[in-house]
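Quick bug: Polyprenyl synthetase family protein output formatted oddly.
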Amino acid sequence: MSVRDGAIEELRAAVGLQIADEQLLRELVAGLRDVEDVLRDVVRSDVQAVNEAARHLVEAGGKRFRPLFTLLASQFGNGGRESVITAAAAVELVHLATLYHDDVMDEATMRRGAQSVNARWDNTVAILTGDFLFAHASRLVADLGTDAARIIAETFGELVTGQMRETVGPGPGEDPIEHYLSVIAQKTGSLIATSGRFGGMLSNSPQEYIDALCRFGEIIGTAFQISDDIIDIDSPSAELGKSQGTDLREGVRTLPMLYELAEDRPDPRLAELLSGPITDDELVDEALGLLRRSRGLERARETLSDYARRARTELAALPPSPARDACESVADYLVARTH
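Here's what came back:
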């Protein structure tokens, strides 16, 4: 098997993964191929409509960062490869399920450069397909033991709680920026934390390594969302693989927007535009232009750099290795991709 595999080149481009070690690269290539096999097998259904909808996002590809991190985390232990592959497929199924549901809530029309399920079929099909994937993720994890089943159930709870808190908004007296950061830690960080936890736990890693991988996962997951917030404002739709300005259209205030609104003297026109959902394309473009020149976007980049630094600090608890170097490269990439 060649380590110059096209899938790995795409992976490097997607998450900035830098791996010089040939053996580690071979193991990740093999592991990700096995994860893809599990994913395709699990989502297969005798009911044609279910089969087509469930395979839609699996076959669209994506970063596959969560299963990748599960595989990387397993490098700090010894053994348990089959269980690690199962867990890696399960966390990706959970992620895919949340994407189906997110597209319904966002009324998105594109996902990963392709038509979203809710646009191709309808909202009901998208919601039920997400539920279908959640069910199969639970089935996979059930084979890994009661601890793993409890962990994935707790993660489901964090994901739903984060989404609910985002929908409801900050409570009276709650700082909007702190609320937002804690919400994305739940919505994005919690599943990546579980990915690292599973990889370490199922490969029999020492507990201190498992804890460090879990903390790194939550921090880097939150950083991923901040990075996406920045790119959604500062990159064209063709590079995003989805429509730009979705949050503006839905009236969702991301970190750069919240920082700008927290300024002593926020741009009055931008504050007006951010007062609610924007439905007009020209107004969306105007808001994006103002955000690109805002102090809020600059502050979001500063926060991203801080999260990347904290993530690298957590990795110091792990032994020096090509796998640790690979994790560090992801933290560096998250900052670099926003400039």
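Actually, after a second look the formatting is fine. The radius of gyration is 20 Å. Closing.
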